[in-house]
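Question (not urgent): is this output format expected?
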Amino acid sequence: MEHLSGNSLLDRTFQLSITLKGLDGLLEIAGAFFFLSHDPSRVNALLNAVTFHLLSASRISFLAYHLLHASQAIAGHAPYFLFLFLMSHGVAKVTLVTALWFNRMWAYPMMIVMLVLFIAYQLYVMASNPNLFLMLLTLFDVLVIWLTKEEYAKQRNLKGRGEAVRV
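Got this back:
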């Protein structure tokens, strides 16, 4: 079975970036079940407990305040929408990352399309509510698109010459 491999800096950066996307997908799946299985007031209480000590620190308080505010706004109004949103994002990411690690050629363009759609949504959200975290996430997604494009071109070239990378 063919696996993704490579030792260049570009290869390792690609592998790290898709691994981070896969972990993000797993966290989204866990978060989906968490929000669905817990009472919104419990979710808010947990976030209160986690962010309480952060609210006093001046640099981090902005992030902690907005995390807490977002949880109160989302968890109370639409737990099923949030579940479906997080679950669909998480499953899509985990599926594509797994396919990329197994060097499935169809997964490269699908990953690019998925990330372009995520970026479009993120830009829409940032237009009305700019925030640093979403901007950094968008920049990371742009980097992952570029890395995916480069790796796809490399893999197509190797497969075209019959030299597919194997482990």
